[in-house]
Amino acid sequence: MSGFIQRTKNTFGVDFSHDNESRSARAFRSKKEEKHYWILLIALIVLGVLASYGLLVYNNPVSVDSPSFVPIVKRRMVALTAMIISAVCHSLATVAFQSSTNNRIITPSLLGFEALYSTIHTSTIFFFGATAFINFSGIDSFLFQIVIMVFMCLILYGWLLSGKYGNLQLMLLIGVIIGTGLRSVSSVMRRLLAPSEFDILQARLFGSVSNASAEYFPIAIPIVTIAAILVLAYSKKLNVLSLGKNASTSLGVNHRFGVIYALILVSVLMSVSTALVGPLTFYGFLVATMTYQVVPTYDHRYAFPMALAIGFLIITGSYFFMYHIFRAQGVVSVIIELFGGIVFLIVLLRKGSL
């Protein structure tokens, strides 16, 4: 072999030996890239832990040795747990969704999770009044919202992906149309509400960890944990699915089944997060876009941990700064959505199309 390379070099004046030695099937192109990845991942995790610690103990109105210190920390733990659940759901769901659809601009929000969430709550207060709306809480309402969101997505997938004319782009288009229709219906009903009812409803429709309740965690945590493990275990298949239908089929992967399986897990994660804290439309897109910028590999075994670290730091850091530095507790989700929307527009304008 060395003799062949030498003869080739002598004949054509080109040295192929360096290219042959630099080729590798590893996830990273060089050890330097791999080292930078792990350094950045550890740094983001440490910053996220520090932000979490600050949320729990910083600016606590009582001293550490006071009997009231622990109850206050426990109340803050509810919000922190909701942040962790939201970070896991949106980070994994958005990256998996974009990889399975082979598009880095569209997000799971296109399937109408936020629109359906808004329609459920708007319909409740419109038809049954403010009292029924306030009482529409607890485990039963939480499970109802999750089931109805997942059920809608399963119908959408089963109809548009499993049928004779299964088409992923058609499914996304139908999802956009359904979401737009639900938002229009919700908007009409909100205009007909009394001002006091509108104020009560509007507070619920903003995504916030204050919407979460500790009684939801025994249901939400096991569901999210199982779905997250299944998504992480599906990393290698997602590597192939992200290549597109033709390439994945050529490599022996059932593309239609793989996409449906990934989208079912995405729908479960998004349903739990939306029912728990409310709609966070561009949060997942912001996390996924930042992940693609800093991860020098397409291997989801490395992309998912980085997305989790970035998502956790964004939400905990945002709440820490807005709560304890700027004293603006009610605008955290607005700020996250604002930056996410700006990033979405920048990416869309740079790419030029969906």
Describe the structure using short key phrases.
ABC transporter involved in vitamin B12 uptake, BtuC; 354 residues; 76% helix; mainly alpha; single chain; 15 helices; globular
Model description:
This protein is mainly α and about 350 residues long. It has one domain: ABC transporter involved in vitamin B12 uptake, BtuC (Orthogonal Bundle), CATH 1.10.3470. The protein contains 15 helices and no strands. The longest helix has about 35 residues. The termini are far apart.
Shape: globular
Instruction: Summarize the amount of helix as a percent range.
Output: over 70%
Low-confidence stretches: 2-22
Overall pLDDT score: 80
Number of strands: 0
User: What structural category do the secondary elements indicate?
Assistant: mainly alpha
CATH architecture assignment name = Orthogonal Bundle
Number of domains: 1
> Strand count, sense and closure of the main sheet?
none
CATH class: Mainly Alpha
Outline of the structure:
The chain has 354 residues and is mainly alpha-helical. The chain has helices at residues 2-12, 17-22, 31-57, 69-101, 113-135, 139-160, 168-191, 195-205, 217-233, 235-241, 245-250, 255-277, 283-294, 300-325, 332-351.
